[in-house]
C-alpha cells in the first residue's frame, strides 16, 4: 500500500489536503452564521475551545505520516541540517519584535498582565497555536511538500503546497468570517507558506517552521488584544517609509525566496561533493 501511495505521491498529497479541508469544513456548514455571516469574527481571533479538536488534528496527521511511511522523507523525523537554522533567526527576530511592540504599548497603556495571566487565556492560546502549527506544518510542509516534490521537484512543490495552504483558510469563511477578511488571510497564508516551505527544504525539518508558525499566530492574536487592532503588524501609515512598510508586511515571502535560493545553491554544492557510485 505504501508503494501505491508513493507512485501517486502528488495525488496523495493533494487528496489528503482536501480531506482535511472537508474535515474542518463539515462541522461548520450548518451552523448559524456560516458563509461570512459572523461580521464580528476576524482572522486574529483564537477559538480557545477548539484546543481538543486541534490536538486531535495534530495527532491524526502525524499518525498519517507514519502510516504512509513518509516520516523521514516528509522531514518529520529527519535529522535537521543545523547550518540552515540561521535562516530561521531573521523571521523569528522580526516576529518577536512585533510581539514586543504589542507588549510595550500595553505597558504604556497600563494593561494588567496579572489579571490576563490568571484568566488562563495566554496559556491556552499558546497551546492552541503550538498544535495548530504542528497540524498545518505536518500537513503542508510535511505531506504536501514531500508528495509534490517527488513528482515535480522542490520549487514547484513549494509553490503548490503554499497555494494549498492559502486556499485551506477559506474554511474560515465557511465558519462565518467575512469574505474580504478571509481573502486577506488566504493571500497572507499563501505567501507565508513560501517561508515555511523554504525553511523546511533548507533545514530538512518541519520543526523550525512549526516554531515560527506558532510564534506568528501567537503574535497576531496577542497584538489584536494588546493593541486593539485587527492586525499583527504596524499600520502602514505609521511606518517611516513605504519601502520599510512593504518589507515589514511582506517579510515572510521575501525571506522565503532568499532561503529558497540558498537551498538551491546548497543542493548544487552537495551534488558536486557527493561521490557518484561506481
Q: How many domains?
A: 1
Summing up helix and strand content along with how strands pair, one would put the structural category as: mainly alpha
Tell me the helix content.
over 70%
Large-scale geometry: globular
Question: Could you name the ranges where pLDDT drops below 50 across 5 or more consecutive residues?
Answer: 229-240
Give the terminus-to-terminus CA distance: 33 Å
How would you explain this protein's 3D organization?
With 278 residues, the protein is an all-alpha fold. It has one domain. It has helices at 2-7, 9-25, 51-68, 86-108, 113-118, 121-152, 154-168, 171-174, 179-203, 207-226, 242-249, 251-273. The model is unreliable at 229-240 (pLDDT under 50). This is CPBP family intramembrane metalloprotease. InterPro entries: CAAX_protease, Rce1/LyrA-like_dom. Keywords: Hydrolase, Membrane, Metalloprotease, Protease, Transmembrane, Transmembrane helix. It comes from Sphingomicrobium clamense.
Keywords:
278 residues; mainly alpha; 0% strand; Rce1/LyrA-like_dom; metalloprotease; hydrolase
Amino acid at each position: 500500500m505504501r508503494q501505491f501511495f508513493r507512485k501517486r505521491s502528488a495525488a496523495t498529497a493533494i487528496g489528503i489536503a482536501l480531506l482535511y479541508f472537508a474535515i474542518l469544513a463539515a462541522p461548520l456548514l450548518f451552523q448559524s452564521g456560516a458563509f461570512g455571516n459572523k461580521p464580528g469574527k476576524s482572522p486574529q481571533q483564537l477559538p480557545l475551545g477548539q484546543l481538543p479538536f486541534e490536538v486531535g488534528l495534530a495527532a491524526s496527521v502525524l499518525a498519517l505520516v507514519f502510516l504512509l511511511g513518509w516520516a523521514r522523507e516528509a522531514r518529520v523525523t529527519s535529522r535537521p541540517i543545523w547550518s540552515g537554522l540561521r535562516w530561521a533567526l531573521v523571521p523569528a527576530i522580526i516576529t518577536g519584535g512585533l510581539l514586543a511592540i504589542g507588549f510595550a504599548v500595553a505597558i504604556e497603556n497600563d494593561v494588567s498582565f496579572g489579571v490576563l495571566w490568571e484568566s488562563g487565556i495566554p496559556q491556552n492560546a499558546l497551546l492552541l497555536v503550538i498544535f495548530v502549527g504542528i497540524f498545518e506544518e505536518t500537513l503542508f510542509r510535511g505531506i504536501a511538500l514531500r508528495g509534490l516534490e517527488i513528482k515535480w521537484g522542490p520549487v514547484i512543490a513549494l509553490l503548490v503546497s503554499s497555494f494549498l495552504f492559502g486556499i485551506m483558510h477559506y474554511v474560515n469563511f465557511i465558519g462565518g468570517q467575512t469574505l474580504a477578511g478571509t481573502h486577506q488571510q488566504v493571500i497572507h497564508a499563501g505567501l507565508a507558506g513560501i517561508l515555511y516551505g523554504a525553511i523546511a527544504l533548507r533545514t530538512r525539518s518541519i520543526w523550525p517552521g512549526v516554531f515560527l508558525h506558532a510564534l506568528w499566530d501567537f503574535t497576531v492574536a496577542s497584538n489584536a488584544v494588546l493593541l486593539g487592532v485587527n492586525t499583527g503588524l504596524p499600520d502602514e501609515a505609521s511606518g517611516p517609509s513605504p519601502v520599510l512598510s512593504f518589507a515589514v508586511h511582506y517579510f515572510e515571502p521575501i525571506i522565503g525566496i532568499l532561503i529558497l535560493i540558498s537551498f538551491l545553491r546548497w543542493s548544487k554544492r552537495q551534488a558536486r561533493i557527493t561521490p557518484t557510485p561506481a
